[in-house]
Amino acid sequence: MKKFSIKTIVAIGIGAALFFVLSTYIAIPTPLPNLKLSVHYGTMAVMSMLFGPMAGALMCLIGHFLGDLAGGWGVWWSWIIGSTFFGLAMGLLGKKLRLDDGEFGIKGIILFNVAQVVAHLIAWGLIAPGLDILLYSEPMEKIFLQGAVGSVGNIISTAVVGTLLCIAYVAARPKKGSLQKED
Q1: pLDDT (0 to 100) of residue 34
Q2: Which of 149, 123, 135, 121 is nearest to 33 (CA)?
């Protein structure tokens, strides 16, 4: 197993803290019980792509766990596992997009958004609701409604926030071959 660098360990801590703060304090309540919409998945998508799948999974797992503890409704492992999957999936995408190379054009935007839509649909349309039914015997109608609303909200916020963060990150990076040695 590959060891994490100090930089990656620090990123996991910062990512988990960002997930917690953004999901706990910067969130829009919905009429559905225990469901809020937030910008944290756009941030987690970019951090996962930059630091890799394991770091992304850990950021989302720890951050969601802490958010559930602070939320007062208890720890819902089914949704934590959904978040963990999202971080893992977006970290895998990072190997393909390679934001550190300073490239994120139209193809990158399309690939990012297709991948985040698929990851959200799997996380909130299959994993979280399926585990809610299996682990907690939750009513199917309620859980799939929560998953659908969560998916749509997360997809939209990740499309806006995540795409803007990717564009800003790449714009701040020097382009490959753009630095020249002075005589």
Answers
A1: 66
A2: 149
Residue 159's domain spans which residues?
6-172
Q: What does pTM read for this prediction?
A: 0.89
d(CA 180, CA 116): 36
Nearby residues of 179 by Cβ (< 8 Å), 6 or more positions away: none
Tell me 5's DSSP state: P
* Gap between the Cα atoms of 52 and 2, Å rounded: 12
The distance from CA 21 to its chain's CA centroid, rounded to whole angstroms, is: 14
Asked if the structure places residue 80 within a domain, the reply is yes
3-state secondary structure 138-149: CCHHHHHHHHHH
- Structural domain count, the chain: 1
Please tell me what DSSP assigns to residue 160.
Answer: I
